[in-house]
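Schema walk-through. Below, the input block comes first and the output block second. Nothing else is stored per chain. Lengths vary across the set, and this one has 194 residues.
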Amino acid sequence: MDISFALTGKGYVLVAADTTAARSIIKMKSDEDKIKVLSPHLLMAFSGEPGDTVNFAEYVERNLRLYHIRHTYPLRPASAASWIRRSLAESLRSRNPYSVNLLLGGYDTATHTPELYWVDYLGTMTSVPFGAHGYGSYFALSLLDRYHDPEAGLEEGLAALRRCIDEVSKRLVVSPGKYKVKVVDKDGVREIEL
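--- output ---
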């Protein structure tokens, strides 16, 4: 029952994910960080089966780091998203596919633009101005469609994110209590208190 949201703004990508680790009706943890920093200007919010998400996030992080070591420069967000999509598609055709949905946000230092990619467990990928995964997406996508402004500053982006979180906590029967929020911009990745 993972919930994650992400949106782009003027020079940044905001990503939020709940901190509850649960399986079926059992809550195992309430302080899980579901946003993985992949490189100084790239992060990923993941949801899916608990074992798959951690394994896949570490697999992606290690392979992107290996690419950086071999080529002396990191992958740009669009290239990283394509590689992740291909990895999920190949996994789907194996005996042990990853069941992972993710939002990949990054800041392209070459073009100085924020980028956000929506990827699902089937290896479907698209570039989006905002996105969501999990049960929270049923409520958040309509709010983001109405209130998202691609030219908004960070405070306006946080206000839109708060609207999504408030709506989920008000309308979802088993809404998670806490969220972690991270932003990636020209200065890199940092955590923000909501």
